Amino acid sequence: MTNGTAQTGNQFLVAFCKRLGYSFADPRLLQEALTHRSHSVPHNERLEFLGDAVLNCAMAGLIYKNFPDLPEGHLSRLRANFVNQAALSNIALNLQLDKLIKLGEGELRSGGAHRPSILANAFEAVLGAIYLDSGFVHAEQVIGALYLPLFQNIDLETQGKDPKTLLQEFLQGRKLTLPEYNVVTTTGKAHKQKFQVECMIPSLGIRTIGEGANRRGAEQAAAKMAYEKICLPDDCK
């Protein structure tokens, strides 16, 4: 790596830490958190394991404090909605983690830097790295700063419901025909398949295609896109 390349890389890391709101005492932990197993060892899988536990504990506390009137079942669904793969990958993209993840050549060529699972895992690994670097309190502070703004405009009627349920309830409430789901393609080996599923609502002229590691995940992705297409902010209730 040339000096120019190293300086550029360091600048990206400094900018990332500013967005994250945290500076590492041990930068090696951040480097490990950003290293996918396809690139080299040590990679971020152990930090991901740790970060997942840190995130779930911190989120439980944040949701408990910020939603004092919600019963336990609603709290659990709300937390699940905030720590699922889609939510975590969105936060990772907002932090521009995709520009920093170290991937092997195969993953780079296949677009791994934008794969939701890789982004979500890297974000959890970063949280695990913060925990090791300075403890739970600092990790909780970072999580709070990232998530509290997302709490401001939550629709508690829809939180915790999956996209297929939301779409079905919306259509049923307006006596419209329910969506049809069909597998378009299945690619990859048996242990690492990728599904494409279409969601069709003929009465509204809507067709969306979602992708996922299994049929259910692809159906949910397609339903989410369809729901967003037909639902106006004041009408999706």
Fold and architecture overview:
The N and C termini lie far apart (54 Å). The longest helix is centred in the first third of the chain and has 22 residues, at 45-66. With 237 residues, this protein is mostly helical. It has helices spanning 3-20, 27-33, 45-66, 72-83, 85-94, 105-109, 116-134, 136-151, 163-173, 215-230, and strands at residues 180-187, 194-201, 206-212. α3 (45-66) packs across α4. It folds into two domains: 8-151, Ribonuclease III domain (Ribonuclease iii, N-terminal Endonuclease Domain, Chain A); 163-230, 2-Layer Sandwich (Double Stranded RNA Binding Domain), CATH 3.30.160. The protein has a three-stranded antiparallel beta sheet with strand order 1-2-3, with helices on one face. It is globular, with a radius of gyration of 20 Å. Residues 1-5 have low confidence and may be disordered. It contains ten helices and three strands, in the order αααααααααβββα.
